[in-house]
Amino acid sequence: MNLVECILRGESRAAARLISLIENAGSEAVAAMKALYPHTGRAYVIGVTGPPGTGKSTLVDQMVTQMRSMEKTVGVIAVDPTSPFTGGAILADRIRMQRHNTDAGVFIRSMATRGQLGGLSRAANDVVDVLDALGKDFIIIETVGVGQDEVDVVRTAHTTLVVTVPGLGDGIQAIKAGIMEIGDVFVVNKADRDGADQTILEIEMMLEQSDSDSGWRPRVFRTVASRNEGVEGLYRGILEHREFLGDQHAPRRNGKERSRWIFRGLLQDRMAAKAMERLTPDGLETLIDRIACREIDPYSAVEETLQKVGL
Ligand SMILES: Nc1nc2c(ncn2[C@@H]2O[C@H](COP(=O)(O)OP(=O)(O)O)[C@@H](O)[C@H]2O)c(=O)[nH]1
Ligand SMILES: [Mg+2]
Q1: What is the pLDDT of residues 191-229, one digit of tens each?
Q2: How much is the pTM?
Q3: Given phi > 0 = left and psi -120 to 50 = alpha, else beta, which region is 10?
Q4: Which of 145, 177, 225, 279 could serve as 284's disulfide partner, Cβ 3.0–4.6 Å?
Q5: C-beta 82 within 6 A of ligand 1
Q6: What is the rounded distance in angstroms from the CA atom of residue 279 to the CA atom of residue 271?
């Protein structure tokens, strides 16, 4: 039986194998993703973002437990390309979520390597589809809210959680990083620390100022993830948002916003790869040298290259 059939039968090991292929950007992965695509679109996808150290992984771990107690199956994808401590962070995430290791209803994967086909977040997006086809009810993507790439992958989730903590002025920073607008649900974690009320107030004030045209009024929850406090309420808040999305839920998941993002990304990658092929490494170096010594401007260099590819 081939990889795709095994995944559609719910075999985790097959999913793990395909994910490795995705990370290595093999052509086998592309063939499998093509075959899986018609079987995706059923899972409910939750994005979790926020600055490093705010307790996202701890929170995700508790959410998994919550979902399992409701007999839902869960896939978790932890993406962290930015942290200089990535190796350590991922190791920590593994240890943190280790108690789910023996549970066949949970699939956890950390990703840090960038596939050659595209950015890390697009690879992560492929993994969402794999876990979706595997039959997981919920898929949680955890990512540090830094950089457009990371923001894009959680933006296309059904429900996006923005996690912050008291007393870091994080609310303001979050706005700067452009993640405030993408939150459907806000979490003030580490509410055992001083200033939680103040932070909640700040976020609520900011939400009042921002006008959303979706009709959804983002809610703010307080949690102490390390003590599993407030997690059940947060889970209910997520379900509330799912209810709000209602029948729109499936269309949004397979909807235009996400499809456009995926298509554009793939097109960019493939076209750039084709152009690079045509240039050859030597040709590329020559062209770069010419730009560097002002023999040709970068715009004309790109136009010249596109002409070579026939565009
Ligand atoms: N005091 C306190 N510490 C927490 C809480 N949640 C998580 N932590 C701790 O914060 C640290 C970072 O947590 P982690 O989940 O790795 O954060 P992430 O980088 O956002 O994924 C860990 O040492 C956690 O044990 C909380 O609610 N209160
Ligand atoms: Mg983490």
Answers
A1: 999 999 998 998 888 888 776 667 888 999 999 999 999
A2: 0.87
A3: left
A4: 279
A5: no
A6: 12
